[in-house]
TrEMBL record:
Residues 614-691 form the UBX domain. It comes from Petrolisthes cinctipes (Flat porcelain crab). GO terms for biological process: ERAD pathway. This is UBX domain-containing protein. InterPro entries: FAF1-like_UBX, FAF1_2-like_UAS, Thioredoxin-like_sf, UAS, Ubiquitin-like_domsf, UBX_dom, UBX_domain-protein. Residues 534-604 form a coiled coil.
Amino acid sequence: ACSGIEDVGEAFMHLEASNWNLLEALQVVMPQEATTPATPTLPPPLNPVPQQPEVISVDSSPELLLPPPIPPLPLATPSTAASEDVQPPASTSSSSSSTTPAPVINVNIQILCGGASEGSTFPLELVGNTTVGGLRTLLHHLVGINPCNQLLEGFTAPVKDTTVIKPSLLPESRTLSLNTQAHFTPLFHNYYERMNGAHRSGSRGESENGDYLLLIHDETGSRDFSLRFPGSRRIREVKGDIHDLTSIPVRHQHWTGWPPNIDQENATLASSGISKQHHLTVRKIVKERTPRTQRKMRGVQAGATSGNSSSSSGQAATSSAVTAEGVDDSSGEEFEDASELLHDDDDFLDMMDVPPSRKAHTLIPADIEDEVMGVLHFSEEFRARYGSITPAFHQGSLEDALKESVHFPAKTRRLLAVYLHHDGSVLSNVFCSQALCQSSVVDYLSANFVVWGWDLTHEANKARLLNLVTTHFGSVAATTVRNFNTDKLPALLLITRTRGVIEVLSVIHGNCVLDEVMTSLLHASEMFEEQRAFEVTEEEAREAREAVKAEQDAAYLESLKADRAKAAAKKQAEMEEIQERERAESLKQQVDAIKEAVRASLETDLPNEPDPNSSDPITTLRFRIPGGETFSRNFLASNTLQVLLNFLHVRGYPADEYKCLQSWPRRDVSSLDASRTLMDYKLFPQETLNIEER
């Protein structure tokens, strides 16, 4: 703007020619006076206070913009409009006619606070007497991160906001990294988004892409905000953004305008049922102080005031401020903020004059009888104490947690993280709030671990845990837990199973910071994955062997089944054959018995053979049976043919089975009329008859 160059390509050309030294590039392109060098003026603030409510668009996936040229940065004495924290540079010469420019320090800022520009670096030129606080204010105007939320890293020595930045404090690469405090979300996703105007309220409609425009009135600060969020934004995240804008902690925010009966922790704007443009009101909750609290505040403030001024005046000022009950907001806020620095919860509750029934409870009561009930109570109390962003503790016994983690097959096995808490340790609250309940740790534990928690504050609960550890982990692990001192707690035990043996992989103590906790978790996961890959290979080989064995066993069983079926069929056939033979034999015996009975009857009725000397005519009949044998008998010529047939039947040649044939004339005598006599058939005085089977 100050150079008058509108072509972006030309601006880049001048910057490259001057090795990206903005001051030299401006001196080249801008006309200079003979005696006084051109001094670049401070550009107007990039986020001036608008007359209308400011619209801040928070996109879940910001569009990539072509980076425009970096605008002129303040190189001369910063004005109060840009920042009140930047100290004016000291004059390098008492003479107004001096032409020596102020020394310039070139630094590079690497952004590490997330968003689309994470990891990117941009250059800055600082005058020689710029302080760390001034740099923070400058970065606030460039990237939109409040100075109180900035983490500047890379200095070679400890610095304060009043420390003047010198080359000796910078590393050789002249690069400083910019990060943010935990739980802070920058108003802008990257530097170029701010340069192009993140407030694109006029470029799209209020309801485009499902965006919601929240018109929020801050009653405490008498300010209005118009914030645009996507529909997937959760209400608790909106409250966190309001905390960044108004400095009202989420726990002290009182809202008016949210629909009733909704979960304000997990509900999204789309699921809350609000309109695309919704009005809300927020104010800071001011707790009413009891007389006992006022007396303690008087003592605290009187002691602080007496160190800086006379005792009488300090006590009077403090007394009047307390009596007003909220007239002096700063003193009240200092007192409320001081509560967060107290490590002893009981002392703080006594100071706030809270009844004993409302004091913090232990995560697991001493009189708990059931292990599962203790775990459920632990999870509820932990969430109530440390907020909604907490590890997802397993809602069951330690044995169930083992079954769902290390007892799974190698392909689906996960590590087990056993969190041991102790309210008597000064590290408990710090470790939980600053490490265990950080979103990065919570997400990593949820993805790679099954988390189970227990409280060791009471001796009864500690004894119960030692029994559980001895039962499931062994005596070595129980000894390790028993030797934990209170000052080493809380602790996070990472449990694994190697070749069927459950063991403690590593222990994370409560004195570890966030980076150390994440490093330990990553290292444990790497070791676990290496061992798990080896066991997966072994498991697959074992499954292959078992599959071959199972296939062979199935084939053997199938063959055995077929053989048994054949043997059973053969045995059944033999039994049927025996039964049939027995039945035929029985039938034959019955037939033979009948035949024998008939033969005996016929033999009884058969007349005796006549005497050869009888006067009656006698005929001699000769019979030739199969096989060539013959036998003969005398009959009376007056005997009927039936007597002849009965004789043959008695001899074993019944007429229904054998034929009695006469040679001449050729005929079957057994088929003739049996009532006629032998004389009638001319079987007299003798005849030979052939017996043949039918």
